[in-house]
Amino acid sequence: MPELPEVQTIVSDLEILIGQQFVDFFSGAPKALKNISLASFAKEITGQKIKSVSRLGKIILIRLVNNKTIAIHLKMTGKLILTDHKTWNIEHKAWNVEHEIWNMEHGARNMEREIWNIEHGTQNINHKKNTINNPGIVDREPRTIPKHLHHIFFLKNKVLKFYDVRKFATISLLDDTDLATIKNNYGIDPITDTFSLKQFFALIMRGKARKIKEILMHNALILGIGNIYASEILFDARILPARKADSLSEKELKLLHKSITKILRKAIKMRGTSISDYRDANDKSGSFQNQLFVYRRGGQACKKCGTIILRSVIAQRSTFFCAKCQH
Ligand SMILES: [Zn+2]
What we know:
- The protein is of the alpha+beta class.
- The chain is 35% helix and 18% strand.
- The chain has 2 domains: 4-183, N-terminal domain of MutM-like DNA repair proteins; 186-321, Helicase, Ruva Protein, domain 3 (Orthogonal Bundle), CATH 1.10.8.50.
- β3 and β4 (69-73) form a beta hairpin.
- Zinc ion is lined by residues 302, 304-305, 307, 322, 324-325.
């Protein structure tokens, strides 16, 4: 699951789209649209230019000039991959036969696709004619629409492909009131908000009877930290994940506060952690996975002291720690 550093990396990559205009939107899995129908969403964003791209916790916010905001939550396996028109056309051409099936199955708007084809080169139409007239010459084997490509944002000079293996990712269209409501229910963002030591102490006090790892991962208190970074932050601060928050000394809390921003900033700099399928918007891996001290290293030697890293479960999540380095 992408955490704050991965989402921040994607947001930075998507900033290239500022000023660009949406020309169309397709979805083969419209259930991902949470507060709006597919037809209304496509209509609302088409013709709109992008004013800014930002992040609210793990939600990607694409703000339009009409002051509506497209909010994308990648959840477990969502991936946004940017491509240029030339590449898209090559891929699109290869996928044409399957697109016919896609169109039939998903009731996609063929008329718009024709206009798209006319606007973006006649190659596709010719190819389409060929495939219709001579279906035998097309090798269908490798030419399937990627199975997990569910939504496609067409922009004037780019195509933004939205893949999602598990199909938990969501898309919403929000106004400023919706955004304010979400922000009110969220905690402090350790990267974009002021995150003073005083504020951090107050947060800890709110969750004091809980285990410190649970607090770090609780979005209503602190935003954007998931299992990977909670484990790494606690290792960096030399604190055992199962410690109750109110058992931490002031010195330990200061160390923890420092480790939160230190680890997150370092992970952003290294463009995130690619352990399972995380990719940035250019389809490239991050490199923070090479810096992990404990996460998913159960049974291996601690890189600092050689002790075997242990695994336990806190709030149903695997938790990794070094019993010697962490207290
Ligand atoms: Zn150790």
